[in-house]
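Lab notebook, bench 4. The sequencing result for the construct came back, and we need a structural model before the next group meeting so we can plan mutations. Quick request posted to the team channel:

Model the 3D structure of this chain.
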Amino acid sequence: MENFTQYNPTKVIFGREVTDQLPTELSWKKALVIIGEDSAKRNGLYARVVSLMNMAGLEHVTYSGVKANATYQDADAAVQKAKDYQAEVVIAIGGCSVIDTAKAVALGVYSKNSVWDFFMVKEASPEKALPVLNILTIASTGSVMNNVSVLCDQKSGVKKEFSHDLIYPKTAFLDPYYSFTVPLKQTTLGVSITIAYAVQQFLNEGDALLTDYITADLIRLSIQNGKEITGNLQDYKLRANLMWLATIALNDTLSAGRNYTDKSITCIAFALDMCCEIGHGASLAIVLCAWLKMHQYRYLSRIKFLAKQVFGLDGFDYDATATSFIRKMEEFYRYVQVPVRLSEAGVNETQKQEILLSFQRNKITVSNYKMTDKDYETLLELMW
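Done. Here's the predicted structure in token form:
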């Protein structure tokens, strides 16, 4: 087992109507509230939060319009609003993009430069940040309980992540009820994201037996609940399971004892996000399946473990078992209507060169495997 430090200061309040506890977590005078384009207003959550802030005597202004593929430009605009208002806390209402933006804003308030400078390593490591609270509306990447923010620059076509302990959310409110309005497509794409991040951590080096079994169970339960949710989007139990699974998938639980130094799958999915606009969950499913095929022999024993624990597949032929596991994963994705090929996602082969260029712009920076130009071409072919 690799050496590791387990640290996560985020307080999670989970369950029905937990947002009503918001006033007990507020000790500031002014807040910047960040929301997406309209879902938080549509489902009544924004109005409820405003009412609770008023009850607590917390003054606030709102920055709205954060897109699904969060941009640093939105974060910079929100930073300026926070500075002008002299906000003391940032409150995110929404999914991962809104929360990622809120984290970047929390850092940007104490900087004279664009938040993008942190992501591009053009500015020294931050020394302080505003506290962040979040109210989650979709089961997705686990940003609700980690120290990572992901933003992009649409102009340059670059998408990057930045991590720092200062941006762990102070308090996270997870009420599965507010994910009821998330449509089927976004729901199953969220399941895909949960699974991909779990597998990515599992493929890293380190002998961490307990972590392995937790990871396998998380993937198995994500598949089980992901299938069941397609028949009943209003099932509270399923919504609750998926929300907690997504949170655990990326709050460092699954990296304990592992040398989490390879994020190749994420980086390649970022590249697809920037040129194909098919949704991060679709990008990850396509990349994950292609990556496992390309590196099947590197991961034979790892895949065999997952095959047995997730699907009950076992046998002496490691290669055949690994092939069966990948096929089972593809069958699951198709069952929940998540594409596993670029062609299934509506991407035309005429975009191949554009995609390869995006791979170059978003080169893998955290990896145990050095990708050559030929490797990128091979991987792309496996995605069709």
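The chain has a mean pLDDT of 95.
Will bring this to the meeting.
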